[in-house]
TrEMBL record:
Its EC number is 7.6.2.1. Residues 174-237 form the P-type ATPase A domain. The keyword Disulfide bond does not apply. Residues 8-20 have a biased composition (Polar residues). Its cofactor is Mg(2+). This is Phospholipid-transporting ATPase. Residues 75-121 form the P-type ATPase N-terminal domain. GO terms for molecular function: ATP binding; ATP hydrolysis activity; ATPase-coupled intramembrane lipid transporter activity; magnesium ion binding. It is a multi-pass membrane protein. It comes from Triparma retinervis. It is found in: Endomembrane system; Membrane. The active site is at 465 (4-aspartylphosphate intermediate).
Amino acid sequence: MHAKEQELSPTSAGSKSSGHFSGGLQVVDEPSGFNSMALRSIFAGNATRTAETLSDEPKRPEGLHGPPTGPGILGNSIRTSTYNPYNFLPKFLLKSFSRVANCYFLAICVLQTFQSISITHGKPTTAAPLMFILFVAAMKEANEDISRHKADNEENTTVTHVVGSDGTYYDEPVDRSWKDVKVGDIVEIRNREAIPADIVLLETSHPEGQCQIMTANLDGETNLKTMSASKEMMPPGGRNNKHFMNGYGGEVLCELPNNRLLNFEGTYTRPDGEKVSLGPKNVLLRGVVLRQTDWVRGVVAYTGKETKIQMNGGEPPSKTSSVMKMSNDLTILMFVVDILFCTMAAIISAKFLKEDWVQNSCYLWGTCDYPSGTCESLDCRPPPAGKTAVLGFFTHILIFTNFIPISLLVTIDMVKLGQAKMLEFDLDMYHEIKDHSGDVAEIPLSVKRSDLNEELGQVKHIFSDKTGTLTCNMMDFRKCSINGMSYGLGTTAIGLSFLKRNGLQIPVVPPKPAGEPDTEHVNFIDPTFSKIINNTSHPEHKNACEFFLSLALNHDVLPEVSKTGEVVYSASSPDEAALVYAAKHFGFFFKRTETGGKLVIGRRSPRGGETEVVYEVLNFLEFNSDRKRSSVIVKDPKTGSILLFCKGADNVMKKRLAKSVNGSSLMKNTEKHLNQFVDDGLRTLLVGKTTVSADFYAGWKKRFKAAEDSLEHRDEKRMEVMEEIEKDLELMGVTAIEDKLQDGVGDALTKFRGADIKVWMLTGDKVDTAINIGFSCSLLDTGMVLLRACGEDGEMELDHDKVPTDVAIMGKIQELLEKAKSETNNGKECALVVDTAALSAVMNYHKELDLNEICKLCKSVICARVTPRQKASIVDMVRFADPKVVTLSIGDGANDVPMIQTAHIGVGIHGLEGRQAVNNSDYAIGQFRFLQKLLLVHGRFCYRRTAKVCLYMFYKNICYVVPQFIFGMYCMASGQPIYNDFIYQMYNTMYTATPIVIYGILDRDTDMETPMKRPWLYNDGQTNAFLSRGIFFKWVLEGCFHAAVCFFVPLWAYKYGIFESSGMNVDFTTGIGTLTNLMAVVVASGKLYTETGWFNYPHPYIAKGSCTSQFFEGMVSWTGSGCSWQLISFALWWAMFKMISDFGEAGVMGTYFQNVAGSFPILAHDIGLYLIMFMGMAIAFVGSFAQKLFMDMRGYPTRATVAMELERDLKRKARVGSGNSSTGLVVDSDFAGVNP
């Protein structure tokens, strides 16, 4: 618990310096205490009277304390849904048209209704695809909101039990829905029921007023926590059921509603006038579940949206991937191109109008019949050039509408949703985990924000927590040092790595002594110590017993009875539970708590048998991240003396030891053992004790009570008083706990280094411990040059806060930067180790950019002794110093949430510290090793797919729209459209919609195993190999070329009469437009096949290695698999064309389809159309095939091509026997630095 730095304990008010909880819950850093002039007054059992005080509360603006509230809310109904049947349409439309793209197409619809510029006879045909896009979005919004409505209704109608309301006490509790509970009501909650509102505890079924709760709904933790009602809540004589106001009937005075989950300050005034202080331990928050307690009763303090869980329920931070940012930039660019095309067309139109032959041909612009002579009539004059240009501009805006893909956003959304489902379906990403009750849960990969799928393929920095992320967070007690003597044999995996690295002898571990019990979370072997603990006459026996007695008393774990009848410990941290299990193992069995805050310890005799000893706990001084220690004050049952046992981090505890301990042989031996435990990668705590005089304790108790009763700055005052008694400690020893590395961590970190991903390990451990763990998990290796910037090394001048000075930190940074440059120039890899003191100096003196220069030259970075706040600051520092890189943070606990939400991508691990990290992450996995496949395989594939989808969406529209511009040059840019508008609008939403979605979900350029074997493939995403402005313009040029093919090939066919052999033909405009339309659909689909990298179908033969055979194999692949996709587009186009041809003949919608009436049978049965289609494809794609062949043959292959060639060579080696590069086969190192 203590080495982990953070925990969520209800007893540690304000212990969380920063943290976030499920559904966007967030604990904000702010001082405790509140304005005494702004308090809430609640009359217990009288909601009506309380309502009067709520109405007088001030309005509170949004700020650190939470969202805007006030005056007070009486009711308890909550609503998380966005819409209702009355506001759905207006709110949805308002949200939809906040998107610029939707506003653009709405404007197009409006322009289409103006006859003077319309090309659709005044009909807004763009409305159909726009409405389809909005309909899909509306269904998505409605589906999500219906789910929220159901959840709201289920919660609001949950039943609780009201004991007293409006001054009336009920003999039997009355059932009411949660929504009907009001501030001031006294409610009863029974075992396994959820708390309906934030309530102040009045009494519980436990004689001491204690109750146990599970806060999984609040912070994700499944372990139980103890809360309590103050003994002083009851007036003398107890509660009078019949005369309720003489029983409870008091007044609660507390702080106004705020979002500080771990803070609560207030007082309860009993009917007799006696005041009782209230703290966070006396409050049950809405959403937590009562466990192992028959019932509790309390007065409702906050309801509805003023409950702490609701006030913390903000939206998670907005994150946008770099690919989507590029897509937005390209959309703006294409809009500019659209405007330029329209402007050019308008200018050309106006210029044509000034030509004499145009002025004398009024059939082109006038009302005269054709031919009409010289148009000398005053009523038949050409329109002004300016007017023609303006009208031409807006007409071409309508013609070139599809320069901006109307389906871009919805297509990408569908693709990412499909990608997310494919990720979740990956059985290789499943993991099994046991919860605290021993039940096995299957944990799949969970995608919480599919918008970031492609970002997974571009990560440059990984920021990882250690405990529970790289390690299992399953603690075992391994070693200890007691009174200067070290106990515990053997070593850990980290220790073995240290011994091998330094050439030291590996110790032989003897077998476990016979008869020694097997205890969960204890892996301790030492025959010598077994003799000491079992021999009462041994001189070290007393010291050993006192040591483990302190561990059995100084904790906040709860004993529970498991399904098998055994006592198991539920703790807020695995470290804490492991220490209590160790005490049990060595004969000090914490069994239960009793009335009066007494702990029952089962003392096992060395001769057998067990004696129960009751210790009266006077005070428990909790652990938090600022104190980094916990203490318990107990009364010795034999002597009656007052003892204080304290344990905590070594750097904190050393300051509180008695002066006589410092410099003693005991201290020297203990520090030696401490360093040995660090070399083994063990988590250490120092243990101390002191005897407190009765007089001092009496005075201290009064001061502590005054601090607890304070309504202002309570936590700060409590800390000051705690400091008074935690001093002059005797050193008892050191505990050493092992947290084993997770499976596959070393392999994953090695692969990440091969993928040029920099891994940062952020931990609260000592520097040397962090370094040893780094070596054991392959984050570091012996060939690396280790650069240290640590305040504890004594190489930098420190200020009074033990932080390096400005001059010292800058000098150190310059020294390390020069060394890093020198070593990297010599071909060596570097790693940086920095501690919390150095990081504080870097941030205090704004040296982040200088530190980042060193980090750029290092393969790995270790940050030791860091706090949760510093974790987030480190991520922010890297993002600020290098805005173009993509960062990823991964962790498993609440203390990792700020870091997870600060990075571009947050990954949570299902661990033993609750679900806070998972609930606030973008992706959730079972163990760290799964991150390897998530990034190297799925991340890379998703980046490539999304990049290609983005490029293709613009390409296919260029291929479709540019023929309109070319055709305009043949008709004086008059605004004559080449396509039938209905077919034109279906291009994006129907003909070419399905293939690109399938491609974006399924396509890949290698098999699933190759990216894991060749991690350098991941460089594609880091170098933007698939999407950049240069690549975009290449696609634009190719789209323009293919557009020219789509127009000129049908034009050439008409010129030479290819379609006139049957004697039947359609008019020129309809024929050219229809064939160009079909060519665009076919060519756009064909382009997608040239970009396809993987086809799941049986190959007709296997190429034997020559470039020619591989080229033809590729042709077969594209043709064979391509047909399946092309036929979809081809069939849809013919179906729609037949429909509108029939509509034209039947006169549907008047003359709208008249120009294509009867054209289907003419074109569908003409063999020339199909010949031209294949001719156009051949012309369009011969260049693409030639380019691919040239790049592969001339030494410019893509990384994927190289990787697959390596895999083929390995298979050949397997067939012909062992070989090497001398046989002519390529090796991996030959291509590790290849650029696509």
